[in-house]
Amino acid sequence: MDKLKVAVIGCGSIAIHRHLPEYQANPFVEIVAVCDIKEERAQLTGSKYNAQAYTDYKQAITDSKADLVSVCLPNYLHAPVSVFAAEQGKHVLCEKPMATSEEEAQQMIEASNNAGKKLMIAHNQRFVPSHEKAKQLIANGEIGKVYSFRTTFGHGGPEGWSIDGKESWFFRKEEAFIGALGDLGVHKADMIRYILGTEFSEVAAMIEASAKENSDVDDQAVTILRSENGIIGTLTASWAYGAGEDNSTVIYGEKGMLRLEDDPAYGLIATYTDGSKVNYELGQIQTNDSGGQTSSGVVDHFVDSVRNDTKPLIDGEEGYKSLQIILAALEANKTKKNISL
User: Could you tell me the pTM of the whole model?
Assistant: First the structure.
């Protein structure tokens, strides 16, 4: 089989630190095009990866004859660029949150379905070894009936990660639409759905924008989720964890509890009601602070799904369900009422 040709749209941090290195490391892919509205950035990235540089995403997608398109753009552009790529017969890997509304998400799904092409949303937390192991333990009944959970994702903010620092689009509502909830919270919404194997039916939320100057999006959020089968828990997203990143989850069940990414030595610790304890040394979760995330598993899974014509683990429908939780949290905060899904 010939190598799959990929066009990466957007040459910001997520493309530079994750998508492009992962495509380059995949033996079944050739990077043929990169695109960024800033020509110098596009040219520098193109030179590094021996790819044609563009400033117009439509030209990059069509002229390059790419098979795959990675959408690494500000949130408000996810849907229009993904829809265009699908309409041109391309398989699409889109960054999270997949869209800024339910309508946009449905447009993306419909466009890919009509084209008969793959749509995958880049929720990398499903591929974290501790999360995969926890899902397996819960499915096997290791901790019995699950009652509750708490999950959080926070760091000092995108100014320490984004290529544009404090001037990043992350802080501008017209481009980002949503702040920490969309940057980090949607990851945990997707992860907890996956691990517990359940859908959520009710959302409450309190959201603040008090930690960042020159920003008009949320930077702290605490949500309460209720699942269809009666599990309740909290999901927190924050750009105010200045002392270090926290990407931990604790799940409480009738026979014990699971602590995920909550210990410096062990990715997963299972503690049981009979007093026993199992420490799982699975390798630490990749973080921006510890040298980047260049082997997330997202790109390899996307490429495999195209090569083998299989359904991506996080297809458009899965991305949509996780987005719905975050949209409901925004509505709950606005109305001061619990929102039913």
Answer: 0.95
